[in-house]
TrEMBL record:
Region feature Disordered, mapped onto this chain: 1-30
InterPro entries assigned to the protein according to its UniProt record, in alphabetical order: TPR-like_helical_dom_sf
One Pfam family it belongs to: TPR_15
Protein name, as recorded: Glycosyltransferase
Biased composition (Basic and acidic residues): 16-25
Organism: Parasaccharibacter apium
Lineage: Bacteria, Pseudomonadati, Pseudomonadota, Alphaproteobacteria, Acetobacterales
Length: 552
């Protein structure tokens, strides 16, 4: 997790010096304070209304001449929208309203320039961004550390980890130490797949601030990526869970389960946290907990509920939204815990301790047969449409080219690094003698279109798919799944299907720094990108696919 400047100093300066009134406030807006703007937007995000929060922040920034309000809106937008052009416009407006001639404003103007430069860098306006960063570093020496923190953060979010490393080496060699500089160096080295090198910088950051959450979490991820599971998971479970609202009763009012608690006779509540893939990866440890505990309840998202009910009939599965509305149920449970904590609870210490694999998700026979018929019909219709009837059964390949849509700026940046597009994937694969099936979900399914010259259409049966249980049934009729790093990839691995991962260059911790195999899913083969674009590694996938087809 990269980190930059805290907003406190800039906001304080804006509130003291930055109110430039012109009487243009709307009636309701003039009574707002910067703290109220931030609180209101954050409450909307916590309720799952991120789009409304972003719209409110934009409306406030557009409708006021009050610098403090503009900056409050801008600082929220930096975190919660990938619309860099909006962030850039907000900070440019703030600078125009801050008089250059006033000495007391110089420091705050420098901080605003740093935020503006960061947004410009991520938006691809690198020349202007670098000019702003260097101008602040030269004219305001007191902001040199802040420039280094934000410049390195912007380079990392733009996918330029090698350049971020060079900047950080220069800043750390010539200036006072900073927790954020050490943290960002650890992040840069982790993204460069040099996790063991990253550990030393995270440790230095923790020496400066032992309770710094971002550094502790980054250190945990680097340990896990390096295969140091015992210390890595022990530190990983210290994180604040990534759930829509930390005010939910099962987080606030129930103790969090640790691995030293006797489980006999306890009622444990495990809840969905982070992505669907995390739940699919770690749910394999659930049976060990069930054997030791009295009762277990899983609270998950609708897309996983049916799959988990059928795979783990010994536990109660409910929707996490159902629990949120019933705080009186707190008395039913003894402990709660995020599902990704399961490896820690099961004392996973080394890669070799990962349990021997066997498929751990169930697909009922009737559903498997239903999707098998749909696949056969699609192949038959595709053969007629193409004017040919291939001799024998061709390889059936499922394709996923993009992850799910995200909302926060940081998550969107990560998704851009991991995702391809339908056009890019099909251009790389080229004509192949295989039957191709889309497994793409969400908004990116709309990219699907007829492919000229492929020798076969890309069949889309996802209209028959309601949730992950259906996706699993569809996968059971395919021979191979090719996917970027997203939930269906984990689903294919958990089912024991042959699956090829098209990994971004800064591979996720669970795939390690190198290698084409993973102990988590023995049927997975990893293709690692060596640059920001996935196009070259997709060509490697295409070569392997033709070889796989030739082998039969």
């Amino acid at each position: 997790m990269v980190q930059g400047m805290k907003k406190g100093s800039m906001m304080a300066g804006a509130e003291q010096h930055g109110r430039v009134e012109d009487g243009s406030h709307e009636a309701g807006q003039s009574a707002l304070t910067p703290q109220e703007v931030t609180a209101c937007c954050q409450q909307l995000v916590a309720r799952g209304e991120g789009d409304q929060a972003v719209s409110l922040a934009i409306q406030i920034a557009q409708g006021t001449q009050d610098v403090a309000l503009i900056l409050a809106a801008g600082l929220f937008l930096v975190r919660f929208t990938p619309r860099h052009e909006v962030v850039i416009a907000v900070f440019r407006k703030a600078l125009l309203l801050m008089p250059e001639a006033e000495p007391a404003m110089a420091s705050m103007r420098g901080e605003v320039k740093i935020f503006l430069a960061g947004a410009l860098m991520v938006a691809g306006e690198r020349e202007e961004a670098m000019a702003l960063f260097m101008d602040v570093a030269r004219t305001l020496p007191e902001h040199r550390v802040l420039v280094g923190e934000h410049l390195s953060m912007a380079l990392l979010e733009a996918g330029l980890a090698d350049q971020a490393e060079q900047v950080l080496l220069a800043w750390l060699a010539d200036g006072p130490p900073s927790v954020s500089l050490y943290n960002n160096m650890g992040c840069a080295l982790g993204r460069l797949n040099r996790s063991r090198d990253a550990l030393a910088y995270y440790r230095r950051g923790m020496e400066l601030s032992s309770r710094h959450e971002a550094v502790s979490f980054g250190y945990a991820i680097a340990l896990l990526k390096a295969g140091e599971y015992e210390e890595g998971f022990a530190r990983y479970v210290r994180r604040v869970p990534r759930i829509p609202s930390l005010n939910c009763w099962f987080y606030q009012d129930l103790p969090r389960l640790t691995n030293d608690v006797p489980l006999e006779g306890r009622h444990l509540l495990f809840y969905q946290e982070q992505g669907l893939g995390d739940t699919i990866q770690f749910i394999r440890f659930l049976p060990e907990i069930v054997r030791r505990a009295g009762r277990v309840t899983l609270a998950v998202l609708p897309s996983l509920a049916r799959l988990l009910r059928e795979s783990y009939p010994m536990v109660q599965v409910c929707l996490i939204t159902e629990l949120l509305d019933h705080p009186e149920r707190v008395a039913e449970y003894d402990f709660s815990c995020p599902i990704p904590d399961l490896p820690y609870l099961c004392h996973l210490r080394h890669v070799a301790d990962i349990p021997a694999f066997s498929p751990y998700l169930e697909v009922p026979v009737r559903r498997r047969e239903h999707f098998a018929r749909l696949v056969e019909q699609a192949v038959a219709q595709g053969g007629r449409a193409g004017g040919h009837s291939p001799a024998g059964r061709r390889l059936r390949v499922g394709l996923v080219w993009a992850g799910d849509s995200r909302s926060s700026a940081q998550d969107v940046a990560a998704d851009r690094r991991r995702s391809s597009s339908f056009a890019e994937m099909m251009e790389a694969l080229g004509p192949v003698e295989a039957d191709l099936f889309s497994l793409q979900y969400g908004d990116r399914r709309g990219e699907l279109e007829p492919v000229e010259g492929q020798g076969a259409v890309v069949h889309d049966l996802m209209g028959h798919v309601q949730d992950m249980a259906d996706t699993a049934a569809l996968m059971e009729s395919l021979d191979l799944v090719i996917s970027v790093d997203t939930a269906p990839l984990h689903l294919a691995g958990a089912l024991g299907r042959e699956v090829w991962l098209v990994s971004r260059w800064d591979a996720c911790w669970r795939w390690g720094d190198e290698g084409d195999r993973t102990p988590w899913y023995p049927t997975m083969h990893i293709f690692r990108a060596q640059e920001l674009s996935l196009a070259p590694v997709l060509k490697d996938v295409a070569v392997s696919l033709r070889r796989r087809i030739a082998e039969g």
